[in-house]
Design brief:
about 25% helix; Aspartate Aminotransferase, domain 2; pyridoxal phosphate binding; Aminotrans_V_dom; molybdenum ion binding; eight-stranded mixed beta sheet; MOCOS_middle; alpha+beta
Length: about 700
């Protein structure tokens, strides 16, 4: 069905307008209210809805700006009050209101409950207070009593108003707007249905629309703009005046199918019951399990007692795992193990720093200290000084099942319930003289390796090592994590002549580099290698639109380096990765794998032998022959080492064995090396002697 801009008047536009109106009415019915009670303004998401309120709310007369957390009672002027347990988008509202109100206050929920009702009953005030209330914590699923809305209204009758952040609540729970009467409600329709991803809405009580006054105006919101006198005549219809530009009418049209799906399932109350039941099962799985020594396996953050009532707890289980000695397991390690079981969960603070601080007991001074140590949102730093700086969160939706819980339990049992350490298996073999035994290069990132006897080294890696990459039709780099078939692509140097092979030149990727398409990936510029190899890759991977790109050496006037040595490569962390054969051998023995297969899975450039197992963890510098390298880090391992490099089949045993060996520390194996300056072009060959410093 063809739709079009509802601001026009042709048939498809009128059809679109009708569909949008039906969607508004369907949303109102879903929340048990009507257009007589609430306006619905379509937005791009809940964050956008909150931003509109922050930009538009009229606080009235403003005396001055006060410091945050000043006591509400007895202070003149309009106030902006938000809960500490709030999404970042709510906290961000304060930056828009600080110049228009006299107080900005972050409070705990019990402080709101302690407000004395009717305190300002006989006080005439030209100012208004705006309270932004979290309906359900997106951090841990705690549901706050919505009776607080009426309590706030009664605290300062006619002068205190409530904006309800219902994005998390409404995703799986019934919000009855005939029973609770917030003045504004922010909703994410994406969180309810999973699609469309760019549609939310702001519900505004019809008797509160006068409290919002827009300054900006966009397409479709005005009757007339006068460029000469700077006058603007806005639409008198509230909804039309607030929906700037063209709304996502195709996304909005899909909402009806979403609501039909909810109804067919039994309604939102049925979803609320089902998802809470699954979360309860997960809570019990974590709370009742323990290590062999009796120590609990998890610290769970929720309303106490845990998961007894869906009216006070949503379908979210937030936790940190514990080792048998009581120390914390970092959420990054949890993510890696979940990947093995195809479990997708969230990690970190989930854009709710206030709740994160509270539940993880992070004082303000520690928060800033952690930031100064490099901790930022979205990174992989999960533990600082033995304390967690984030958590893991499991959430359930309509399509979740008990099977999902069973898989989660299996992951916990297999990966985190204590098992015997591998340390006692380490033998006391006689250590011979350390030697470099193997050299590997990986010309195409995430594809198979070439074993060489001698090879030229540079400060950015071996010649031709990771100088090509395969990108999808969307421009994303392909890796074995998502495309295990990449291990079947075997680069070889020279003219193979096989009908199933394709040949590309090493000296140039394009005759006309100025016309070649370049992309920037990990700050590395590349150039397309042509259609022939692209078609060959599509056939090998059974994909469409893949391209092969080669790194551009910018120090050579933007052309591909004819010697294969570039100032940058596609290595993830460092130019060289070295592993110790003795360490790999011990892991191989414990899980019954061939040592050759294990070393292939670790995808190292250099393999040394004759070094005590795991001694490489302490090495700070190394000479291979008389060529110096410095150690610049340890290689953190993920599900990549679970992929059999011969057939692409996943087997988690190696990662689990390494996890057990590392008990209490990061899952690392191998060290990153950097060639010291002045040794560009040095030749390495197998059987070279190895010396090191600790």
């Amino acid at each position: 069905m063809r739709l079009s801009n509802p601001h026009s008047r042709h048939p498809s536009s009128m059809r679109t307008r009708d569909i949008v109106d039906r969607a508004r009415n369907r949303i109102l019915r879903h929340f048990n209210t009507s257009s007589e009670q609430f306006h619905i303004v379509f937005t791009s998401n809940a964050t956008h809805s909150l931003k509109i309120v922050a930009e538009s709310f009229e606080f009235g007369a403003c005396e001055h700006e006060c410091e945050v957390a000043r006591t509400l009672a007895g202070s003149p002027g309009g106030a902006f009050v938000y809960m500490r347990d709030a999404h970042t988008s709510v906290v961000g509202m304060r930056e828009l209101v600080r110049q228009r109100c006299s107080r900005v206050c972050a409070v705990d929920f019990n402080e709101l409950e302690n407000l004395s009702a009717g305190q300002h009953e006989h006080t005439e005030s030209p100012t208004r207070d705006l309270f932004v209330i979290t309906a359900m914590s997106n951090f841990c699923g705690r549901k706050y009593p919505l009776r607080i809305i009426e309590h706030i209204h009664n605290w300062k009758p006619g002068g205190s108003f409530v904006c309800l952040d219902a994005a998390s609540w409404a995703s799986t729970s019934f919000l009855d707007l005939s029973l609770y009467k917030p003045d504004f409600v922010a909703i994410s329709l994406y969180k309810i249905f999973g699609y469309p991803t760019g549609v939310g809405c702001l519900l505004v009580r019809t008797d509160r629309s006068h409290l919002l006054s827009k300054h900006f105006f966009g397409g479709g919101t005005v009757n007339l703009t006068d460029h000469n006198s700077f006058r603007v005549y806005r639409k008198t219809d509230f909804i039309e005046s607030f929906e700037d530009g063209t709304i996502d009418f195709y996304g909005i049209a899909a909402l009806e199918r979403g609501f039909d799906d909810i109804d067919a399932f039994g309604g939102i109350k049925t979803i609320q019951h089902k998802t809470f039941t699954l979360a309860s099962l997960t809570y019990r799985a974590l709370s009742t399990r323990s290590h062999a020594n009796g120590q609990p396996i998890a610290e769970i953050y929720c309303v106490e007692p845990g998961f007894v009532n869906s009216e006070v707890q949503g379908p979210i289980v937030t936790f940190n795992l514990l080792r048998d000695d009581g120390s914390y397991v970092g959420y990054t390690e949890v993510e890696k193990m979940c990947d093995l079981f195809s479990i997708e969960l969230r990690s970190g603070c989930f854009c709710n720093q206030g709740a994160c601080q509270s539940y993880l007991r992070i004082p303000p001074t520690r928060l800033i200290a952690n930031y100064e140590k490099g901790k930022v949102c979205g990174d992989t730093i999960d533990i600082i000084d033995g304390r967690p700086v984030g958590a893991s969160r499991v959430s359930f939706g309509r399509q979740s099942s008990e099977h999902d819980v069973e898989i989660f339990e299996a992951m916990i049992d297999a990966c985190f319930v204590s098992s015997p350490s591998l340390h006692h298996f380490l033998s006391n073999r006689i250590i011979s003289k350390p030697l470099l035994t193997d050299i590997f290069i990986y010309p195409v990132k995430s594809c198979s390796s070439i074993r060489v006897e001698r090879w030229k080294a540079g400060t950015s890696g071996f010649e031709y090592d990771r100088r090509w990459m395969i990108v999808s039709r969307h421009g994303n780099i392909l890796s074995q994590k998502r495309y295990p078939k990449l291990c079947s692509i075997q680069p070889q140097k020279g003219n193979v002549g096989d009908k199933r092979s394709v040949t590309i030149p090493l000296t140039s990727c394009s005759d006309e580099s100025s016309e070649s398409r370049r992309i920037c990936t990990h700050r590395v510029k590349t150039v397309d290698c042509g259609d022939e190899v692209a078609q060959w890759i599509d056939a090998e991977l059974d994909e469409q639109g893949c391209r092969l790109h080669q790194v551009v050496d910018e120090q050579l006037t933007g052309e591909c380096n004819t010697h294969g040595l570039t100032t940058t490569s596609l290595s993830n962390e460092a130019p060289y990765l070295l592993i110790n054969r003795r360490s790999a051998s011990h892991l191989a023995e414990m899980i019954g794998l061939d040592i050759k297969e294990v070393t292939k899975r670790f995808r190292a450039n250099l393999i040394v032998d004759g070094i005590e197992p795991f001694l490489e963890d302490s090495i700070t510098g190394m000479y291979i022959g008389d060529i110096p390298f410095k150690v610049i880090g340890h290689c953190s391992r993920c599900q990549m080492i679970c992929i059999d490099q011969e057939n692409g089949v996943k087997d988690a045993s190696l990662l689990l064995a390494l996890r057990d060996y590392r008990l209490g520390s990061k899952i690392t194996f191998g060290i990153y090396l950097q060639l010291e300056k002045g040794y560009e072009g040095a030749m390495l060959h197998s059987a070279m002697s190895v010396s090191y410093t600790i």
